[in-house]
Automatic annotation (TrEMBL):
Signal peptide: none annotated. CDD domains: AdoMet_MTases (cd02440). It comes from the Eukaryota. It holds the Pfam family TPMT. GO terms for biological process: methylation. One of its GO terms (molecular function) is S-adenosylmethionine-dependent methyltransferase activity. This is S-adenosyl-L-methionine-dependent methyltransferase. Keywords: Methyltransferase, Phosphoprotein, S-adenosyl-L-methionine, Transferase. It comes from Tilletiaria anomala (strain ATCC 24038 / CBS 436.72 / UBC 951).
Length: 197
């Protein structure tokens, strides 16, 4: 993580998104757990949570990396399940992984795109996700963002998620002070404050 922080911190705070390509090309990807996040699987399958999730519709995973979570959302019935990443290397790895190891029964539902999350739902965006996302999932995306990007993060989600849609956030890391990031320390209250304003 220390090496990743050196590579990413200064450049990402200046808006240099190529830093994520560098991380992928140098295999500095400690967030890549080689599988879908257990918290997402729990949320999709735990009855007390799952009953509050919309059934079907479009899913979005920003900063999708290798795409495991987009696959899980497709398996849960969301179609299309769109994984976006600003890194073309990450998107290529997602497509490669899914072709080799992904659940081919949801092949038509899973889509991966290189796109700038902060332009989704705007006229500048190169990917028209629309404003009808039913469920979006965030685990290691928010905590990787420099704090100055956080209000834009909330603005974009408010544009692309339907009024009755859901944003599932796994809040991590919540311990310690990580002023240099990424990952930056976050708290449930940060998410609540940003999403309620």
């Amino acid at each position: 993580v220390g090496e990743l922080q050196k590579v990413v911190t200064e450049r990402s705070s200046q808006g240099d998104h190529h830093v994520w390509d560098d991380a992928w090309s140098q295999s500095l990807t400690p967030w890549d757990a080689q599988e879908a996040q257990p918290g997402l699987l729990w949320a999709l399958n735990y009855p007390e949570i799952a009953k509050h999730l919309p059934k079907g519709g479009k899913a979005l995973v920003a900063g999708c990396g290798r795409g495991y979570d987009a696959e899980q959302l497709a398996k849960a019935g969301y179609s299309p399940s769109i994984g976006v990443d600003i890194s073309p290397i990450a998107v290529a790895k997602a497509k490669e992984w899914f072709a080799a190891k992904g659940d081919q029964s949801v092949k038509k539902a899973v889509q991966f795109f290189e796109a700038d999350f902060f332009k989704l739902g705007t006229s500048e965006g190169n990917l028209a996700v629309g404003t009808d996302v039913t469920v979006a999932y965030d685990y290691t995306f928010f905590c990787a963002l420099p704090p100055s990007f956080r209000s834009m993060w909330a603005d974009i989600y408010s544009k692309v998620i339907k009024a009755d849609g859901v944003l599932i956030c796994m809040v991590y890391p919540i311990h310690g002070d990580r002023p240099g990031g990424p990952p930056y320390s976050v708290s449930p209250q940060m998410y609540k404050d940003l999403l309620s304003s």
